[in-house]
Specification:
With 397 residues, the chain is of the alpha/beta class. 49% of the residues lie in helices and 14% in strands. The chain is built from 16 helices and twelve strands.
């Protein structure tokens, strides 16, 4: 089949990983997939290397207008008052109609797969009118807690009710998310639950690189506890570091390897300095996505301090793909994936003290780290590669 993947995101971070993953899974099954993105937000575009930059190639020059437009949209997202931004999202439906119509004709598409965005009703309306199947992947909703609070809540819910009822099918990332929609809206389109997954081609076990990195960081003989992700409050990495640093001096064999950046980065760095444990907490800042697997290889296990009751944390699957278990909160979407003490370790959600205690206990059990890591990798191989997600979503047609 010819499948058109439509999205309105910036195509970066976890959303970009997810888009590339599902696309790869569909292609691995033999389907042709084209992606309709905002200009400058193509998730499959590769960053320019140093040679390209120095040569100032024509391709780079032609990309400037796209980057400029995306930068403008990003600026609007960050600084525009919410009610104005939501008017812009509504107006975007007019542009979407033209872009979608042209893309379907150009690619000779048989089906539309869309990453659902609030207020984006045009796609389902157009697909319904043209008798074309459209499946929505639901990662956001007017019904769940959002970092950016909605202004037109009632309108968002009304549009969402119609969209969820009239789509061909819905893909929810957790059963909790599915139940929330069913309870609120009643009748919705046929739906499945499909948590995130991992690309084993991108997350390749490499013991040699792991040893080299551990030597470079002078942590060869340490128990390395890792975190990869945004340094933001809702991921819990700030309180995790705040609580554990005072215990590190009593556990000199432990090192925290923290990958990422964000608003909590400097406060975390200040807390590490205050506790005088710089040798036991390594803050790398952001690293290139292609290097993430090397850093994961150098870790013994991971920590996921916080999540929510409806989301499917991408890093959980990436750690498991690298044969690293994670200490994670027992929110429903996580317990649907993890078997405690088999493929990772669970602690009561929102119990910060339990999180710290579990982390310190696992750090002393090298056998458990290795056993759970192997089980985690096997689970991803058998059940949670992106091709599994692709098979699930195609069952809705």
């Amino acid at each position: 089949m010819n499948i058109l993947f439509h999205h309105r995101t910036r195509g970066k971070g976890a959303e970009g990983v997810h888009i590339r993953g599902v696309t790869k899974g569909l292609r691995d099954l033999g389907h042709k997939v084209s992606i309709l993105s905002l200009p400058g937000a193509e998730p499959e575009s590769q960053p320019l290397n140093k040679q390209n930059i120095s040569n100032k190639s024509a391709q780079a020059e032609s990309a400037k207008p796209k980057k400029s437009l995306l930068a403008s949209l990003t600026h609007l997202t960050k600084y525009t008052p919410e009610f104005i931004f939501e008017f812009i999202e509504l107006a975007f439906n007019l542009l979407s109609l033209f872009r979608l119509n042209n893309a379907v004709k150009q690619e000779n598409s048989d089906i539309i797969y869309e990453r659902y965005s609030l207020f984006l009703i045009a796609s389902v309306w157009w697909a319904k009118r043209n008798n074309m199947p459209i499946i929505l992947e639901v990662n956001d909703s007017s019904l769940v807690h959002r970092v950016r609070k909605l202004h037109f809540v009632s309108l968002a819910k009304k549009l969402e009710r119609w969209i969820f009822k009239n789509a061909t099918g819905l893909v929810f990332i957790s059963s909790e998310f599915q139940q929330i929609a069913q309870q609120e809206f009643g009748e919705i389109a046929p739906s499945i639950v499909s948590p995130n997954a991992a690309d084993l081609d991108a997350f390749v076990l490499d013991d040699a690189k792991a040893v080299q990195l551990r030597q470079a960081l002078n942590i060869e003989d340490k128990v390395v506890i890792g975190y990869v992700g945004a340094f933001v409050h809702w991921h819990g990495i700030d309180w995790f570091v705040d609580m554990i640093v005072d215990k590190l001096k009593d556990n000199p064999e432990i090192v925290l390897l923290l990958i990422g950046d964000g608003v909590s980065y400097q406060p975390i760095k200040n807390r590490v300095l205050q506790a005088d444990v710089q040798s036991q907490v390594i803050l790398t800042g952001r690293v290139d996505h292609t290097e993430v697997s090397t850093y994961l290889s150098a870790m013994d296990f991971g920590i996921l301090p916080d999540s929510n009751n409806y989301g499917s944390p991408m890093k959980l699957f990436e750690f498991m793909a690298m044969a690293k278990g994670m200490v994670a909160p027992n929110f429903t979407p996580i317990t649907e994936v993890v078997k405690d003490n088999e493929t990772s370790w669970l602690f009561p959600a929102n119990d910060r003290r339990a999180c710290i205690e579990k982390t310190l206990a696992i750090a002393k059990d090298k056998i458990a780290q290795q056993r759970v890591g192997i089980n985690a990798r096997t689970f991803i191989e058998k059940e949670r590669q992106w091709k599994h997600n692709a098979e699930q979503l195609l069952s809705l047609i």
